[in-house]
Description:
two-stranded parallel ribbon; 4 strands
Amino acid sequence: MKAIDTNVLVRFLVCDDADMTERARCLFEQARDKSEPLLIPTLVLLETLWVLRSSYAFSRDTIIESVKQLLVLPSVTFESYGLVRAFIHEATSASTDLADIIIGLQAKTAGAETTMTFDSKAAKSVLFTMMPL
């Protein structure tokens, strides 16, 4: 199995550089044809969400839809399908920052009962608890 870095995933999703996009697509096609899916680590997914939002101004809905499409590609596997499914559910039902959702879910997956934060917006999510005064 091969894993991919954020820059490969971003090229595949954004298609902003013809050469790199073609090379990324070929890698995804080879993975599909050989039935050897590419691993998307959780940290790569997290960084990709951030890059799509901050560098490419993708809307929240577009980012969520991109993750949904990745989830069904036969050429892709995730470090944690459960986390990605939970991410999609939380992202479509709450206004919490997308990166914060991944952080909170990763902590929950690791056994944390909550993620302590100073971020009042994140603290509105069931995944987070506001730091006491």
